[in-house]
Give the backbone structure.
Amino acid sequence: MASSPSSAVESSTVCLTLDLDWAPDHVLDDTRLLLQQAGLPTTIFATHQSPAVTALLALPGCETGVHPNFLGDPDEDVVLTRLLTAFPTAVGVRSHELYFDSRLLPLFQRKGVHYFSNDLMFLHAGIELYYDWSGLVRLPLFWEDDVHCLYFDGRFDCAALRLDQPGLKVLNFHPVHLFLNTREIADYRAAKPVLADPVAARKLRREGPGIRTLFLDVVGRLRGAEMRTLGALAEEFRAAHVFEGRTAERFAQEARKERAP
Ligand SMILES: [Zn+2]
């Protein structure tokens, strides 16, 4: 189904999101302090359970989504069910490595997933929410920290993010890049073996401009802006637009056929 204009959604909406990517607790505690200071609604895609994850997800205004790794396990149902059981309030998904295959669509529908934020349209103007052909609400990503490090040549000023251009701007940060103030992906690779050790990892935080300083710059500029979580935007979109496809019934028919002897 073709995308339809998201009239109920403000065209200049910026959304802050995080993929936790199994970061150690001391790294997540550092992210929690940064978010606490920022005080902005954030959608957090969780990968695992831990005391630091629980504390992070409990921040006021934060929404829980899940971040399944479908690459490590051929049974997508098992992977998704495990995470949705651990995080029962989650209605949104973003796959690790932005993985997608079309078998996920009937699975998402069966599991009650409302939205999928998985397509990176790096720095594209005019991004809109849309229903895909299965009736799932899609919220493409506008920007991601690791891609920023690859795309730009050491540029960490807020203007690079073009936040003033029209369209949905879903920004995605990773706690590990916030912690390390990553400047290039080699920083992360070098830190990986000692990341679990708070003292050794802290020594590897880069001085000067990097992803952490960029985050602080971005949230400073967003202070006072009207921001929402991805789930709130998706529900607003659903309320304003009826999905006309028959895909849900067809998926159910196919599932019944598959179960039949
Ligand atoms: Zn990931």
Summary: Residues 14-259 form a domain with the TIM Barrel fold (CATH 3.20.20.370).
